[in-house]
Design brief:
The chain is an all-beta fold. It is built from two helices and 29 strands. The protein has a single domain, classed as Beta-galactosidase, Chain A, domain 5, CATH 2.70.98.10.
């Protein structure tokens, strides 16, 4: 593996360094702060950017992989707690992470048989999920060092990450300039604004892969979390977890979350789709028009009183119920991350869209701009 394949343009200077330990942000001054978090094998520093709002709620973003390292918000009693899975130090992220909190690209989710055809040319990708390509390949956007810049506004700390994915990287055509801006608001909203541009027609599908447990990371499973997904249809998958092309109605199935339902209520139903994935790991076709920022999902954790709302301009969201977490990973504070100890809501275009002309297109044309926005908003009710 060459250094160029993992190199971003370069980390910008201008922030003060702190220590390599994950610092406690409770009670920190509002704004954006930087600390040294670790080093890559080639010696390059990895930095952690902490954004704190006026209430003391905070989120931490790492420039390696754009990872959301922590997200600390209040419960129904006003007590701050971290609700995303991850690690206290940098070292486990390159080898042990299950894409915890990471930016995913160039193509989120799966591409069947690790290939697609664009304008008559076949492009072959890395086989890193059986015969398929998953989350951008062997060295996706979750495994590169991004260029970081403080773009804060008064009352809204913000961090912009940028990365140049060179023509041919992981098999994809075109030099792709990607950027993601994270903004943390006083309303406890984590806003992600994605943009990308290319000098050659290509395919793009970017997302964030945070694992959430609203009771607190490492605090049991998510089966009692109640979830609503604003989707009348979902995309069933074949034995290789690739969409069949069908847009199936959720009515009368375990996939009907149009009304708030506990995740565990139908998880063990006698359903072929659930059996194939070991639970929920499916793309839901959102009801709102594409490119319109609208509510996609709402999650409530009854004991803590925490609520998370997901708004997006994307046409789909992948709901994953933590099926492949198996207790082999110890996260923050040595906590064991067992099966179903977190959920993911990955806003996206549909999996394998380059091989399904009937799906919303993921083609980004030369000199066009890819844009989408996703907001994770955290609130509470009395616990």
């Amino acid at each position: 593996m060459t250094l160029n394949r993992r190199r971003a343009i370069g980390v910008l200077a201008g922030f003060g360094l702190a220590t390599c330990a994950l610092k406690d942000t409770f009670g920190a001054t509002a704004g954006l702060n930087k600390q040294l978090f670790g080093h890559l094998a080639d010696g390059r520093p990895v930095d952690l950017y902490s954004m704190t709002n006026r209430s003391g709620a905070a989120v931490g973003i790492m420039n390696y992989g754009g990872v959301v390292v922590f997200l600390k918000g209040p419960d129904g009693k006003g007590v701050l707690g971290d609700v995303v899975l991850g690690f206290d130090t940098f070292d486990p992220y390159p080898t042990k992470s299950r894409h915890f909190g990471a930016l995913i690209g160039r193509y989120a989710n799966r591409i069947g048989k690790a290939r697609f055809t664009l304008h008559g040319t076949e492009y072959k990708l890395a086989h890193n999920d059986g015969e398929n390509s998953l989350h951008g390949g062997a060295i996706g956007f979750d495994k590169v060092l991004w260029d970081a810049r403080d773009v804060s506004r008064p009352g809204a700390p913000a961090l912009q990450l940028a990365y140049l994915s060179k023509d041919g990287e992981e098999g994809y055509p075109g030099n792709l300039h990607a950027a993601v801006t994270y903004t943390w608001t006083d309303a406890n909203e984590l806003r992600l604004d994605y943009t990308a541009a290319t000098d050659k027609d290509t395919v793009v599908n970017l997302t964030n892969h945070s694992y959430f447990n609203l009771a607190g990371e490492g605090e049991g499973d998510i089966l009692a979390h109640e979830i609503m997904i604003d989707a009348d249809r979902f995309t069933p998958v074949d034995a290789g977890l690739i969409p069949t092309g069908e847009l199936r109605s959720v009515a009368g199935t375990p996939f009907d979350f149009r009304k708030p339902t506990a995740i565990g209520a139908r998880l063990n139903a006698d359903d072929e789709q659930l059996k194939r994935c070991g639970g929920y790991d499916h793309n839901f076709v959102l009801n709102h028009p594409s490119r319109v920022l609208a509510l996609a999902a709402r999650v409530r954790e009854p004991k803590s009183g925490r609520i998370m709302e997901v708004r997006t301009t994307q046409p789909g969201v992948q709901f994953y119920s933590g099926n492949f977490l198996d207790g082999s990973i110890r996260g923050k504070g040595g906590k064991v991350y067992g099966k179903r100890s977190a959920l993911c809501l990955e806003t996206q275009h549909f999996p394998d869209s380059p091989n399904h002309p009937s799906f919303p297109s993921t083609v980004l044309k030369r000199n066009d701009t890819y844009r989408h926005t996703t907001i994770y908003r955290f609130s509470t009710e009395r616990a």
